[in-house]
Amino acid sequence: MITLPLVWVVSVLTTIAALALAQDMRLPLPARCFLCHFLMALAAIALLLGFRLSFDSALAARLQPLVAVMVGPLAYLGFAALSQDVVSNWRSLLVLNGVPVALAQLAILARIPVSADVFVLGVTSLYLFRMSRLLHCEADQFVHVAPNAQPILRSAIYATLVLLGLMVATDLSIVAAGLVAGEAFILTFLTGVSGIFTVLIFVAALVGTSILMRGPAGHSAKAARPTTRDGEMLAALDVLMREKQLYKDSNLTLARVARRLSVPARDVSVAINGLTGENFSRYVNGFRVRYAQKALLETDLPITEVMFDAGFVSKSSFNTEFRRMTGQTPSKFRAGQADA
Question: HSE-up of 82 (CA within 13 Å, CB side)?
Fold first, then answer.
């Protein structure tokens, strides 16, 4: 009787989570792409680990480090693409972050007399550090994440950090064991670690799926109800946005707005979140998109000029926010209104 490895079951669950995440159009394309590939890389590692441990597959042992070296960069790029400062130049970031992966994979394929786990250890350690820095980002920097989904995002980052940390510890142990005890001990060690790794991949799959659960329905029942002061503060901010057109300032920050209102920045953020269900960045981008809509309809200015005049600094973030609010790209919006 053939017994299927447990890690294969987790591989299937992780694949399902990746496919579900791919269909969530509320996430920007770069984030969906990177996070789905991150989950699929975990699924592939689980699949290869099953072949390696249960069937002693030499090919699986050869392929596993090639896939493992991509996990850290994909995770980092996926979560970083949810922040405002990364989406605007994600293509260049893809190239820059792809270099260490490509070099590590070439070194592994070159069969140089160094364990492949050394290269996996180096790349994963680098991105474990880079992932940890995302925890220092303010909530408003994750412009593509709804305010009530911030705890889920933080939990997802923490879970990924634990997973990467386990990978680093495992690779470090394998390298040390290879130097001291040889290949036979490594296989025994992998058999013991596979159970822990299975649990971590399962957690990653659940966290990936939980990102889909964000939205108004997931809003915490314990959230504080908006007060009269919150309403007055938001009304004053609306006036500033409409009359002073503060949104046209591409460097506008929550702190600068708070100083204009002479109130703490946190109070402004709480008022916006409680009354609009959006974070500060999305609130400001709403004014920018509405201004852009009017300019596209009433003027013949080039779309790029409208973009800069509205306060956006990159075409990708402009298109993302415009599509989020209108369901169309700026060019299709203008063309559609012209044909109407």
Answer: 28
- Element (H or E) spanning 243, and its range? none
Q: Does domain 228-334 have CATH number 2.60.120.380?
A: no
What's at 34, amino acid-wise? F
Give the count of beta carbons closer than 10 Å to the beta carbon of residue 322.
26
Residue with tokens 């920007």: 28
Distance of CA 153 to the CA centre of its chain: 8
As a whole number of angstroms, the distance between CA 243 and CA 93 comes to 37
- CA dist., res. 157 & res. 122, Å (int): 20
Residue whose pair of structure tokens reads 């980092």 in the numeric block: 76
Say which residues have a Cβ less than 8 Å from residue 56's Cβ, sequence separation at least 6.
Answer: none
What are the pLDDT digits (tens) for 116-174? 888 988 999 999 999 999 988 777 677 667 666 778 888 888 888 888 888 888 777 76
Q: What is the dihedral of CA 292, 238, 153, 33, to 10 degrees?
A: 0
What distance in Å separates the CA atoms of residue 149 and residue 215, rounded to the nearest whole number? 7
Distance CA 73, CA 67 (A): 11
311-330 pLDDT, tens digit per residue, is 998 887 888 889 888 988 89
* Ranges for all domains in the chain classified under CATH 1.20.1070: 6-218
* pLDDT(307) > 90: yes
8 A C-beta contact, residue 279 and residue 147: yes
Q: Answer whether 125's CB lies under 8 Å from 257's CB.
A: no
Q: How many residues does the structure list for the chain?
A: 340
Domain 6-218, CATH among 1.10.1060, 3.30.70, 1.20.58, 1.20.1070: 1.20.1070
Separation between Cα atoms, residue 90 and residue 221, nearest integer Å: 35
Ranges 27-31, 153-157, 247-251: which has the least confidence = 27-31
Q: Where in the chain is the domain with CATH 1.10.10.60?
A: 228-334
User: What pLDDT sits at residue 196?
Assistant: 47
Cα–Cα dist 118/175, whole Å: 7
Distance CA 11, CA 2 (A): 18
Backbone angles phi, psi at 301, to 5 degrees: -60, 145
